[in-house]
Write a sequence for this structure.
């Protein structure tokens, strides 16, 4: 008789107690039911396809998309216009504040005030009155700027003299500084008056937005010159 | 998925192996009838198939994975897939080959997943040690021989678990499910010669591992 392979003997002796299969049928049918429920739930693409097969829904969806697109375009255009107006408002501040730059001539007044008409939605009457106010003040501002230019030139000449001759007349320098301070203060008050007068022509909402733009310029008085 | 025709299972009465364990039952006519009924929508037929095949499948999965909960889970999943694919079966389909193919693939995937996510299960060696301790404290004769037997079986379990999928599945299907080399080849997608080679390599590896382990 052929002796049995020890490995086969060992394999034969490996007879673990199989797990009890009771309840397996119930588990299988439960899983099948779960799979059926999951399969019966239509996916997003299937549902969307079903909706788009309805002509009415397709039309409404297309119209909604077109309207949404137009709304986005409108919003972007308004945003761009607002940025342009903000830049023009900064230019306006330079017009009414001689300390920020040179006042422009009356020929460019319409261009300088166009932003205000658009952004604050001024009526023609309001715009005409505001324009007249600015034209009146503009001549004062031009005079002030000329005076500031003269003082600046004199100061530059004194500086040149100090550099070349090594001496300086302190009394003259002190006089020029005082004149510059007076000019700055005068410019500041003129600008405040202009803003105040302009604001009275506007409605409360227009006034609020106008003052938002010019607030920084009118709330900071000129600082004393430190030499 | 199951597409190619599987060879029919041999009659268990013709098995000439000296190993005395329960072979895979072969009821080709009954299986075919149940598959046809299932395909027609008779859901009772699935219950018949479950009753007929649950034990061999659970036995295979349990030896493969060493975990009863996983074995039950994968066998249940195999029958769910059988139900979902019932339209693909015809009178010539080899149900046992399909079942073992599906289950072996599920076992391989679960084994891979467990290697990446190691945990300590209910069937761990700690429980085994408690069982051994209880047995040794009993009034049964020769506890030393019993302990030696338990240790050898544990060593065998670990050795089988360490085999690669192809060798492990081949060994389990051949030795415990009594499938012929041709049938195992149909399950694992391999030629009969290939199955012979795999079986030889599986036994060689087991001898090598167990020789080391048992010598301790």
């Amino acid at each position: 008789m052929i002796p049995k392979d020890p490995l086969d003997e060992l394999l034969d002796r490996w007879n673990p107690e199989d797990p009890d299969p009771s309840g397996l049928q119930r588990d299988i049918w439960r899983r099948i039911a779960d799979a059926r429920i999951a399969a019966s739930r239509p996916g997003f693409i299937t549902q969307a396809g079903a909706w788009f097969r309805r002509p009415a829904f397709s039309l409404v969806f297309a119209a909604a998309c077109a309207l949404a697109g137009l709304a986005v375009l409108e919003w972007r255009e308004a945003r761009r216009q607002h940025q342009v107006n903000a830049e023009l408002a900064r230019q306006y501040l330079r017009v009414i504040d001689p300390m920020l730059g040179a006042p422009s001539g009356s020929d460019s007044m319409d261009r300088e005030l166009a932003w205000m008409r658009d952004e604050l939605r001024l009526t023609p009457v309001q715009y005409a009155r505001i324009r007249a106010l600015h034209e009146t003040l503009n001549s004062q501002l031009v005079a002030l700027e000329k005076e500031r230019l003269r003082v600046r030139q004199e100061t530059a000449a004194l500086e040149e003299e100090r550099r070349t001759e090594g001496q300086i007349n302190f009394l003259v320098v002190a006089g020029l500084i005082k004149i510059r301070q007076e000019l700055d203060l005068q410019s500041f008050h003129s600008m405040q008056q202009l803003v105040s007068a302009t604001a009275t022509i506007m409605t409360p909402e227009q006034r609020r937005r106008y003052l938002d733009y010019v607030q920084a310029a009118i709330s900071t008085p000129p600082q004393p010159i430190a030499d | 998925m199951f597409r190619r025709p599987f060879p029919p299972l041999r009659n268990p009465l013709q098995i000439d192996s000296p190993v005395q364990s329960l072979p895979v039952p072969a009821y080709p006519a009954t299986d075919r009838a149940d598959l046809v009924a299932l395909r027609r929508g008779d859901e009772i037929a699935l219950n018949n198939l479950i009753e007929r095949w649950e034990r061999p499948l659970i036995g295979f999965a349990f030896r493969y994975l060493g975990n009863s909960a996983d074995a039950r889970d994968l066998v249940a999943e195999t029958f769910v897939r059988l139900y979902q694919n019932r339209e693909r079966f015809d009178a010539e389909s080899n149900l046992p080959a399909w079942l073992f193919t599906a289950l072996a693939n599920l076992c391989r995937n679960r084994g891979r997943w467990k290697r990446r996510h190691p945990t300590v299960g209910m069937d761990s060696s700690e429980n085994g040690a408690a069982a051994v301790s209880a047995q040794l404290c009993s009034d049964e004769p020769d506890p030393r021989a019993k302990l030696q037997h338990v240790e050898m079986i544990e060593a065998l379990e670990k050795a089988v678990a360490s085999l690669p999928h192809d060798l492990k599945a081949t060994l389990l299907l051949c030795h415990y499910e009594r499938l012929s080399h041709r049938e195992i080849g149909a399950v694992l997608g391999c030629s009969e010669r290939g199955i012979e080679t795999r079986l030889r390599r599986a036994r060689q590896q087991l001898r090598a591992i167990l020789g080391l382990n048992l010598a301790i």
Q: What stands out?
A: The helical segments of chain A are 6-13, 24-40, 44-52, 55-96, 109-119, 124-165, 170-201, 204-218. Chain A has a mean pLDDT of 81. Chain A touches chain B through 20 residues (CB under 8 Å).
